[in-house]
Design goal:
Layout lengths: L5 H8 L5 E3 L2 E7 L3 H18 L4 E5 L2 E6 L9 H11 L4
Antiparallel strand pairs: 1-2, 2-4, 3-4
Length: about 90
């Protein structure tokens, strides 16, 4: 596994609903209320467990912030993009 270079990352982000912040992919989702935000996090958690790759998750009432990076390498890899694609495929 290798870190993506800037060109690879730009190409990938063109087809994702994520943004790049430093060395992380970031996605913010808003739901109707806390219960719906928590349900969304549980769906993301199931995908992360299947992938063996886990985002940092923050919940603030109806807002969920997801941050993806490969901590062991200090940046964004194909594993992050693969999980980002699976998360994007969830009904929003």
């Amino acid at each position: 596994m290798e870190l993506l270079d800037d060109a690879e990352l730009r190409r990938a982000l063109a087809n994702l609903s994520w943004r790049c912040e430093g060395r992380q992919l970031v996605k913010v989702i808003r739901r109707q209320d806390f219960a719906e935000a928590l349900a969304y996090v549980n769906l993301v958690g199931a995908l992360a467990e299947q992938a063996g790759h886990h985002p940092d998750v923050e919940i603030s009432w109806n807002t969920v912030t997801l941050r993806l990076s490969t901590h062991s390498l200090g940046g964004i890899t194909d594993a992050d993009l693969a999980l980002a694609r699976r998360i994007d495929a969830l009904a929003t």
